[in-house]
Design brief:
Number of domains: 2
Keywords: ATP-binding, Kinase, Membrane, Nucleotide-binding, Receptor, Serine/threonine-protein kinase, Transferase, Transmembrane, Transmembrane helix
Order of helices and strands: HEEHHEEEHEEHHEEEEEHHHEHHEE
Pfam family, one: Pkinase
Strand content: 5-15%
Radius of gyration: 29 Å
GO molecular function, one term: ATP binding
InterPro entries: Kinase-like_dom_sf, Prot_kinase_dom, Ser/Thr_kinase_AS
Strand order of the largest sheet: 3-4-5-7-6
Structural class: alpha+beta
Organism: Pyrus ussuriensis x Pyrus communis
């Protein structure tokens, strides 16, 4: 009996010891996991704090050198962006994610900037292996993509060897995630994989304003439609200047960057050069398009809202005359503006394709507004808010006075200075 008692005591002792050991092990494992999570959280918070200024600088355009992004800046690169949005939250990238990706430790196509990330294979299928070319961008071709969901996108491809293109790619992804307006072209997605970087936009079925104004195969835009388009553009710029927080300057307003949807409503596109307004920092170089660049910006190297106003004024005259700003448009305008007492002076430069079908009073008012916008002194130019109010008033009067007044355009000898420029519109003018 004594032997059996000893045996049971031994069994009970071993079982108790095993249970206690298992309990201690589980407690230790839980403590280790809690400690690991706490360390990761602290690491993440430190990373977020350290990169707040960097993320803001990426949008503000600070630290950009002559070649594009400053090598000393910690702004995320395109290759780093290609790591974002991975399915597994355990990937090491999440431990050092920037501010605008915080809180997205879950399986999702949506990036922190609010822009969905697509796979290269999705777009390859939607473009029928990239055979649906609809244009050529500054850094690569543009394709039409018919998605399986029924949506139609325009896909702008970034050339893999373009440093400046990478900078503009990052700017658009970071910037357009927080800009939403009916007169801006929406960025609906992006691709950031190894050697494959693309931007996806809502497809604008009627193409660019440039093609409608300068392609002889296109039907001429009516006068009313030109004024409507001008107001759409003005409203888009007004939003950038006064609705966005912080305010944004576009820096490349031109007819080829204005796209028209199926209802012929205009939308401002291409935000690759856009920056947060900075009235104190001078640019190391001048970026923009010949014919649209504010001369004061060329002299001061400081880009403000009024520089966008100047470009908008040039665009207004382009709508009025149907002339390309790179082919002597402003010299043509200045000749008409010499005789300030002649109320018919603007009729001399109106687009002949209108065949006299325009409202003379509206033409005078829109032309006067455009001329104020291109004032050589920026402080004399109206704000985009004032411009929207002026154009809205012109449209209000349209309904009261009738749409058209057939005017006979005076037969005058065409005199203008033609500037011989390279075909490539986008230029970099260095000091």
């Amino acid at each position: 009996m004594e032997s059996k008692s000893i045996t049971w005591d031994l069994v009970i002792g071993i079982a108790t010891g095993f249970a206690l050991g298992l309990l201690v092990g589980m407690v230790a494992l839980c403590c280790a996991r809690i400690r690991r999570r706490r360390c990761r959280r602290i690491q993440s918070q430190k990373s977020i704090s350290a990169q707040k200024e960097t993320a803001t600088a990426a949008v503000a355009g600070k630290g950009v050198s002559k070649g594009g992004a400053d090598s000393s800046s910690s702004t995320p690169t395109v290759s780093e962006l290609s790591k974002f949005g991975q399915d597994s939250p355990r990937n090491s990238e999440w431990n050092n994610m920037p501010m605008w990706l915080e809180g997205l430790r879950r399986k999702s196509l949506v990036s922190a900037c609010g822009i969905p990330k697509y796979s290269f294979r999705d777009i390859q299928e939607a473009t029928y292996n990239f055979t649906t070319t609809i244009g050529q961008g500054a850094f690569g071709p543009v394709y039409k993509a018919q998605m399986s969901t029924g949506d139609t996108f325009a896909v702008k491809v970034l050339a893999s060897n373009s440093t400046q293109g990478q900078s503009e790619f990052l700017t658009e992804v970071l910037l357009l995630g927080r800009l939403h307006h009916k007169n801006l072209v929406n960025l609906v997605g992006y691709i950031a994989e190894v050697e494959q970087h693309m931007l996806l936009y809502k497809y604008m079925s009627n193409g660019s304003l440039f093609s409608h104004l300068h392609d002889e195969n296109q039907k001429p835009l009516s006068w009313d439609l030109r004024v409507d388009i001008a107001l759409d553009i003005a409203r888009g710029l007004e939003y950038l200047h006064y609705g966005a927080v912080p305010p944004v300057v576009h820096r490349d307003i031109k007819s080829s960057n204005i796209l028209l949807d199926r209802l012929m409503r205009a939308r401002v596109a291409d935000f690759g050069l856009s920056r947060q307004e900075n009235n104190e920092t001078r640019s190391s170089n001048i970026r923009g398009t010949l014919g649209y660049v504010d001369p004061e910006y060329v002299l001061t190297k400081m880009y403000t809202k009024k520089c966008d106003v100047y470009s908008f004024g040039v665009l207004l005259f382009e709508l009025i005359t149907g002339r390309n700003p790179q082919q002597g448009l402003m010299e043509y305008v200045e000749l008409a503006a010499i005789d300030t007492e002649d109320k018919l002076r603007w009729q001399e430069i109106v687009d002949p394709r209108l065949d006299g079908n325009f409202n003379a009073e509206q033409l005078s008012n829109v032309s006067d507004l455009a001329y104020k916008c291109v004032s050589s002194v920026s402080r004399n130019r109206p704000s985009m808010r004032d411009t929207v109010q002026t154009l809205s008033l012109i449209l209000t009067k349209r309904h009261n006075t009738g749409n058209y007044t057939h005017c006979s355009t005076p037969a005058t000898e065409e005199t203008f200075i033609e500037i011989d420029l390279l075909e490539n519109e986008d230029v970099l003018i260095e000091r």
